[in-house]
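Colleagues,

For the teaching module next term, I've prepared a clean inverse folding example: a structure given as tokens, and then the sequence designed for it. I'd like students to try predicting residues themselves before seeing the answer, so please don't circulate the second half yet.
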């Protein structure tokens, strides 16, 4: 039975249809609102606004639930691989063995990047942030692959190309930034093992793969694979909605993710923990500073637009840290500081009242440090993990017949109609009417 919401404005009553999702969440369909009432809604940051219907990811922020195509993140993190989860997110079902093998072969076939790209990296300003480089290089992929996507098969090839080449580009960019020899992908290595080898292998010091580290990287990227309509995914879909190509759309996602309030938080968390460690700042002092409304300082890695309880991904990330660091015989003081910070914050009324809990970024940097990933590459690691989500959400949006070009409205609060004033009249002491 259809459900409606009733809105009364300017003495007029409007019945608005209610859309109900498969998990019972409700949305008021306001598509007729402006036409019927002349009004728009006002919702900065779209905290209460649904931009689409989607079958890819379900989140319940109050209960800390995250599922991809219905499968709980806890089960994927424990039992799946990043490639398998990427397939699930993209295709809507877990792959058969044959489908998984075909995907792995395609990832290998697409793992190299055009040799010309090395010149791009070598001539990019040396002190550039890896996210700026990555965003530019992903945009550059369009120049190597200008074909327009018309079939599902062509789209899957683009999906595989981005998933494989962005990983290679990230490692290549790192090697070149250090003046080291570029290590090429190997067809006998799995996706994650290949990345680690491209990052850390060298002719003089061969990199030895550690099964637990490879598993940890799979888990890290699974935990980042998609997160419904977050800032960077919305950026990808907004750019795609103008029919800009998929590489430009993904490049926009990388750029949006870079911000410290979003994917750049994993880097900001480590910088915060490092500052606490180096300066010996008291945990309580840090928490107090984060509570001070006059201070712009925030407890990085804490809080979330949707999760009003512990981010389920943070729980898993913390367990992985507890397992991998001892295995690698790493005793990172920042992990202890992070745990103390969590303990103090979670018992503080300010954080309790505002439902501020650790999010995916709070422990992820600790794990990346243990793997040897440089801090300024942490957002790049997030971006690689988010690729399947961005691409799948972009495709879902392009296929959604209800979708249009993204173009929100506004409430104007500027000057009312005003006359043009010649420059001679603007400066009280000037008679000069000449142009600039
Ligand atoms: C990601 O959306 C996604 O799904 C994102 C993500 C994904 O997978 O794509 O999960 C990845 O981006 C995780 C978030 C990473 N960012 C950080 O850790 C940065 C620190 N966190 C905050 O800046 C903040 O919590 C946000 C940006 C994450 C969420 O911001 P909101 O939803 O806009 O909430 P808000 O800024 O309105 O905060 C509500 C209140 C405010 O106080 P009041 O104005 O009500 O008095 O809580 C306070 C805020 O000042 N607050 C914090 C805080 N986060 C919110 N106070 C101190 N420290 C914090 N971290």
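(Answer key — instructors only)
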């Amino acid at each position: 039975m259809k459900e409606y919401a009733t809105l009364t404005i300017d003495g007029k009553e409007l019945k608005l249809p209610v859309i109900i999702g498969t998990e019972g969440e409700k949305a008021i369909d306001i598509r007729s609102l402006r036409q019927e009432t002349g009004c728009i809604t006002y919702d900065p940051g779209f905290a209460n606004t649904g931009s689409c219907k989607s079958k890819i990811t379900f989140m319940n922020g109050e209960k800390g639930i995250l599922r991809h195509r219905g499968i709980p993140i806890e089960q994927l993190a424990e039992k799946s691989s990043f490639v398998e989860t990427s397939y699930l997110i993209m295709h809507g079902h877990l792959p058969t063995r044959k489908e998984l093998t075909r995907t792995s072969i395609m990832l290998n076939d697409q793992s190299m990047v055009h040799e010309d790209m090395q010149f791009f990296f070598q001539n990019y300003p040396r002190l550039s942030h890896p996210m700026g480089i990555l965003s530019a290089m992903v945009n550059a992929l369009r120049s190597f692959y200008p074909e327009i996507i018309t079939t599902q098969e062509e789209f899957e090839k683009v999906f595989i190309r981005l998933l494989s080449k962005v990983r290679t580009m990230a490692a290549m960019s790192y090697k070149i930034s250090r003046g080291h020899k570029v290590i090429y992908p190997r067809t006998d290595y799995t996706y994650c093992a290949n990345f680690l080898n491209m990052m850390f292998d060298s002719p003089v010091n061969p990199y030895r793969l550690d099964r637990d580290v490879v598993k940890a990287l799979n888990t890290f990227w699974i935990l980042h694979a998609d997160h419904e309509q977050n800032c960077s995914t919305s950026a990808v879909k907004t750019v795609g909605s103008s029919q800009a190509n998929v590489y430009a759309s993904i490049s926009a996602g990388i750029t949006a993710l870079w911000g410290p309030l979003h994917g750049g938080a994993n880097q900001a968390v480590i910088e915060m923990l490092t500052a606490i460690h180096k300066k010996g700042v008291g945990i309580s002092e840090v928490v107090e500073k984060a509570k001070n409304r006059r201070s712009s300082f925030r407890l990085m890695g804490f809080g979330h637009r949707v999760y009003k309880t512990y981010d389920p991904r943070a729980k898993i990330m913390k367990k992985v840290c507890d397992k991998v660091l001892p295995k690698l015989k790493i005793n990172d003081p920042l992990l202890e500081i992070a745990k103390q910070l969590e303990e103090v914050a979670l018992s503080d009324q300010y954080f309790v009242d505002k439902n501020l809990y650790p999010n995916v970024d709070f422990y992820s940097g600790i794990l990346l440090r243990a793997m040897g990933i440089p801090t300024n590459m942490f957002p790049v690691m997030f971006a690689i993990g988010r690729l399947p989500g961005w691409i799948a959400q972009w495709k879902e949006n392009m296929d959604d017949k209800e979708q249009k070009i993204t173009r929100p409205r506004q409430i104007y609060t500027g000057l009312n109609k005003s006359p043009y004033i010649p420059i001679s009249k603007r400066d009280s002491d000037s008679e000069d009417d000449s142009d600039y």
